[in-house]
Specification:
Immunoglobulin-like, globular, 6-stranded mixed β-sheet, mainly beta, Pectate Lyase C-like
């Protein structure tokens, strides 16, 4: 496994100055400046008081323990092993508690004089809770090695989430709850010791371990989608008694340290957990600094600020290749600055999230808690599924993300800028700015988005049948160089976008981008207002031969629907309710005008298609029905083209309307339809308009 050093791998030095950016459509100085100012103004500071965990008071709290862990049995199972170690959990936690009680300070985990990263001073410990006004500082050469005894004794049950769904589960090795002004700093290492025999075996149920989907299916389909109250979603080790009281999800942002408790439900039998915790997880905290530490061997996501505000992440080194080993995942969190970090991960390097499915929609308030106001700069990205990713758990929405002066370099990095969601997760993703970055290598695409993401749970694979409409609009990529004439990127695609016909991506704009050596240039499916300006791409194997791509706008206007001798104007996104005497068994005619300079239309090769989009929730008929109808196109001169297409609204009368409102699936009645008009000229010139047509149900 290739190791990554931030300073060794950085091929550029980026000196940031706000004045260096000129505000235009591709950047927003005002929002960017507000994010940086807010994070820095709220950076935590601490009294100059030290609490050293090896001092006499805390050394007396160190105890002997038997660490339990598992190894291969040489076949397809596992063997239990034990070793005697010193347990520093109580010593470290007491020092944190004392610092908090004293009004704040620095809790120091010291290294021995000759300690190095390769030969560290090791402190075995269970989960540690950070508290207000405390900086936990790991000296260089230290390693917090979290014990592999998977039990609530060492990892208590806390309020958390798993992949965007709210629940009570094992505490993260480093966690905080309703704390203010907290920090984790230093050059030490966090090592939860996760591997396929400890924590990670649950992912796919390998080596004789149970598979986590047994619990995930309950969490998603039974608890979240059926609106089971969060206080009844109790996951434990199956042995430890439940506490008398548990905290609720309530947050008072005027007093973040206020916690609301309720009696633990007496009629709930907790489910034995198979869900892995993240490594660092502040929950409902504000004014957070995470600086300098290295994280390896994570059970799940490495850094997960959940429902937080004002988070500064700088100089972290994340090198962990296990399942779901995302690097930094802000979720339902606002005002985040991530800088000078290095990522070498087994999943997305940075993934921005805002809850999943019904939980994401109902978290905090109906409509969800969004995530946004995020800056990512001067970071180095090696292995990972996505470099900078939005989703896939994004039901609450994501907005105002700025990434600049970063470097991406690995054939094990699938996508550089990645977006993923679907109709079970929905969410509005908007105002994403990606500027002045460099790319040496990636494997799949520089710019990649899909709002029909199907690589998650089995539920996602059922098709476009979820209750939440995914929306992606306002993505701006500029001033990017990828590869060199003699050293190609080697990715499959430069730009790849895929969306539902009924919910196209809109306002995706790319300018001043040069890409050397990919297999395919631009691939689009259902994109509106897509623009390329001075985009130069060379295809393998002739890496040095650049071709310049520029788009021509395609405008659809004057759209009308004719039926039963009457004509109705269609306004994009609006719902047209047909009269009671409308005969659904006859074809309707849709007409309109295309205005464009696209050469394909001038050559008679441009196309306009109408898509009729329906689906059903009936067993055995889970796939949506999307019927295409090709329009007749006629040139009217001066870059204008009229089109006409006939559509039969009842060709599948037993199918329901597949469009979902942002509330529930209450309008999924037979006879309701989404009509999409897709106009395509050159392969990268595309425009899509959507119309809702409501007919009287049978």
């Amino acid at each position: 496994m290739r190791k990554l050093s931030l300073f060794l791998a950085v091929l550029f030095v980026a000196v940031f100055s706000l004045a260096a950016f000129a505000s235009d459509e591709y950047w927003n100085d005002e929002i960017y400046g507000s994010i940086e100012k807010t994070v820095k103004a709220n950076a935590p500071s601490f009294p100059d008081v030290n609490f050293v965990v090896t001092s006499e008071k805390y050394s007396a709290l160190v105890s002997d323990m038997e660490e339990e862990y598992f190894v291969s049995d040489g076949k397809e199972g596992h063997l239990r092993k034990t070793q005697k170690v010193k347990d520093y959990t109580k010593a470290i936690q007491t020092a944190i508690n004392d610092a908090n009680a004293a009004g704040g300070g620095k809790v120091i985990v010291p290294a021995e004089k000759e300690a190095t990263r390769e030969n560290p001073t090791v402190y075995y410990t269970g989960a540690i809770e950070l508290k207000s006004n405390v900086n936990l500082h790991l000296e260089e050469g230290t390693e917090l090695r979290f014990v592999r005894n998977i039990s609530n004794k060492y990892y208590p049950m806390v309020l958390t989430s798993f992949e965007g769904n709210d629940t009570y589960n094992y505490a993260a090795p480093i966690h905080a709850f309703h704390a203010k002004n907290i920090a984790l700093t230093g050059k030490g290492t966090l090592n939860p010791q996760a591997d396929l025999f400890n924590w990670q075996g649950w992912k796919n149920g390998v080596n004789g371990f149970e598979k986590q989907s047994k619990v995930v299916d309950v969490l998603v389909k039974e608890w979240s989608d059926k609106a089971c109250p969060v206080e009844r979603r109790l996951l434990t080790d199956g042995v430890t008694p439940l506490p008398d009281k548990i905290p609720t999800m309530a947050i008072n942002w005027d007093n973040i340290e206020e916690v609301t408790y309720i009696d633990t439900p007496k009629d709930v039998t907790p489910l034995r957990s198979l869900l892995r915790p993240c490594t660092v997880e502040p929950y409902a905290c504000e004014n957070i600094l995470l600086e300098g530490v290295r994280i390896i061997n994570s059970p799940m996501w490495e850094v997960h600020p959940l429902r937080c505000r004002n988070v500064w992440v700088r100089g972290l080194e994340i090198d962990s290749h296990g399942h779901n080993n995302d690097g930094v995942n802000p979720e339902s969190t606002h005002y985040v600055l991530i800088e000078d970090c290095s990522f070498n991960t087994g999943d997305d390097c940075i993934a921005i999230k805002s809850g999943k499915n019904r939980d994401g929609y109902n978290r905090g308030k109906v409509g969800g808690e969004s995530c946004g106001e995020i800056i990512i700069r001067n970071c180095v990205f090696a292995d990972g599924h996505g470099g900078v990713t939005c989703g896939s758990e994004c039901t609450g929405g994501i907005s105002n993300v700025f990434a600049h002066d970063n470097h991406f370099d690995s054939l094990e990095l699938q996508q550089v800028l990645r977006f993923k969601t679907n109709s079970y997760r929905g969410g509005l993703i908007e105002n994403i700015y990606f500027k002045d970055n460099t790319v040496a290598k990636c494997s799949n695409a520089l710019m990649y988005g899909e709002t029909q993401y199907t690589l998650g749970s089995a539920q996602d694979k059922e098709g476009d049948l979820g209750p939440y409409t995914p929306q992606l609009k306002g993505v701006y990529m500029s001033n990017i160089t990828a590869g060199k004439p003699d050293d190609p990127v080697k990715a499959k695609n430069a730009i790849l976008w895929k969306a539902y016909e009924r919910a196209p991506m809109t306002n995706i704009k790319v300018k001043d981008v040069t890409v050397y050596g990919v297999e395919n240039a631009v691939s689009l499916s259902n994109v509106k207002n897509f623009e390329l300006h001075n985009v130069k791409i060379s295809l393998l194997p002739d890496t040095a031969k650049l071709e310049t791509y520029n788009t021509e706008a395609i405008e659809i206007s004057g759209v009308k629907l004719s039926a039963n001798g009457k004509e109705y104007d269609l306004a994009e996104g609006a719902k047209l309710e047909m009269p009671d005497d409308f005969d659904k068994n006859k074809e309707v005619t849709i007409t309109g005008t295309i205005t464009t300079k696209d050469a394909a239309f001038a050559d008679g090769k441009g196309t306009v298609n109408a898509f009729l989009d329906r689906g059903t929730l009936e067993p055995g008929n889970k796939a949506p029905i999307i019927t295409p109808y090709a329009a007749e196109i006629k040139s009217e001169g001066d870059g204008k083209y009229s089109f006409k297409v006939s559509v039969k609204l009842t060709d599948k009368p037993d199918y329901q309307y597949a469009y979902r409102p942002e509330t529930e699936a209450e309008n999924m009645n037979r006879g309701n339809h989404i009509l999409s008009l897709v106009a395509t000229g050159q392969p990268y010139d595309q425009n899509t308009w959507n119309y809702n047509v409501k007919c009287k149900a049978d």
